[in-house]
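Deliverable D4.2, example record:
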Amino acid sequence: LIQLCMQALLDNGDEILIPAPDYPLWTACATLASGTPVHYICDEQSDWFPDLADMESKITPRTKALVIINPNNPTGALYPREVLEQIVELARRHDLMIFSDEIYDRLVMDGLEHISIASLAPDLPCVTFSGLSKSHMIAGYRIGWMIFSGNMSCAKDFLLGINMLSNMRLCSNVPAQSIVQTALGGHQSVNNYIVPGGRIYEQREYIYNALNSIDGITAVKPKAAFYIFPKIDVKKFNITNDEQFALDLLHQKKILITRGGGFNWGEPDHFRIVYLPRIEVLSEAMRDLEEFLSTYRQ
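Output generated by the structure prediction step:
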């Protein structure tokens, strides 16, 4: 769906604002469609919320749209209403389309609420993405959807392109579609995972505390999804190449992380952990990571 949208929207030289760090498929699909991805910074000091000033400073006459990922992969951030309202106002001022990736919308902790940005922008063209792959823990099914809302009258050519590209896909994922009604209409078992005592909640608590107890590592507590994006003290470990750091950890300790650069983050000072493994596995990995870092210098 992301690929369809980028191909329908972007021509050579058109720009689209994408967060850094991002889910890298956005950058890849924009590039594949001959567009130019322009990355705005999400601010670690502000719970990884988008830096609105940085976002606005990167808008040019070629900017067609902006992307938000909320809840966020890889940071686990959840954007509050006031941040979303500021993004809507920015899009309104500059006549931008909004793409909102909300695939983790049900995986929200701490009693917080996910707000869909489309509900705040009835006058703007919005495309909202969601699905079952993450929220219902059935990643193999790859069932997802996108919803068009707001004022789409200014996006007729875009919609024509979406329909044309959709018609080129000869067959939908019919077997997996059979589960959609049951998944959305039945018991929402994920709710049991994201409260105290629930598996995702407790694994989040464990990984956050374990990472921050390691000398040279700090991490912002994620509010949603199942990722955390810790920061590593590059001076302490003399790290100039985060890919090499990830490979060294993999070869020495058999722990696989994703480097920050894989999410279009510009500095070699972050990496992503998926905290879906059970606490016994996470605990062993954290012990090994701490042991690895106790002697590591790049």
